[in-house]
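2.7 Reproducibility. Because tokenized structures are sensitive to small changes in the input, we list the exact sequence used for Reverse transcriptase domain-containing protein, including any N-terminal residues retained from the expression construct. No trimming or masking was applied before prediction.
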Amino acid sequence: RINKANKELFFRQISLEPWMEVYQATVEVKYNVFLESFLYYFNVNFPEVYLQTNYQKPIQWINQEILDGKKDILELSRLFRETRRDVVKRRLRRKKREVTNKINEAKKQYYDMKIAESDNCVKATWGIVNNEVGKQQQNLSNFRIKYNGELVTDPKMVCETFNHFFINIVRETVQPELENSLNKALNTDTTPDVSLTQQVFKFTPVTDKDIFNIINSFKNKNSTGYDDIPISLLKESKTFLLKPLTHIINSSLITGIFPRKLKIAKVIPVFKKGSTEEMGSYRP
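Resulting structure tokens (single pass, no recycling of outputs):
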């Protein structure tokens, strides 16, 4: 759980970290030490808690006027059952129409507000659509996928299969096109531009300000990577991370070594259309 109290303790602890091992090690070790240290403070101050509850989130768009209208409907329904009078029946129908219109208007206002406040309007819109049509997330315990004519059901093997599929689809589709384009360029009879061959590409060292601006440009979200560190927390703690991060990045640029753990990505297959068992029905 992340709250104000344990965040303050986390910031205090990480601000006192000298990062001496980071400055003295090789590039690969630098990043490993940095990540392990950060995760240590993170896990100590924000221990993982598993909660099992039947709590149901209240419907945000319901207001007191709608609740009062529903009470009136219940009362009129009871009265109609007792009297069977047409005048009561007409009042009941009229009240139902009124409440339905109020519900639709309240929903519209609430969803318009949610979309307007969202950083991703398309995602927010689809979330609303899925919520309204009752679309639920798929139960991954029963998930299965076809690969080489066989059904894969083990969750770990499903992940490995998707990983293999997404990696190889790039090699099989994108890479050949790049190679063909390169071969065509090399086999042309045109005289190469000498000025292009004389150009030199090089990296310039980054500064604390560069890293600060990059981290600050991240959206304020609680989404995480494979390390489970929320982006919002990373932004809040950026002041204490600038020195070691700047050092690691510049060391990487100087040596040409890119830390292995930075090559790890969290990829989620998103279903597009077709059969849920076909890998081609998903995009990364």
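The longest helix spans residues 155-187.
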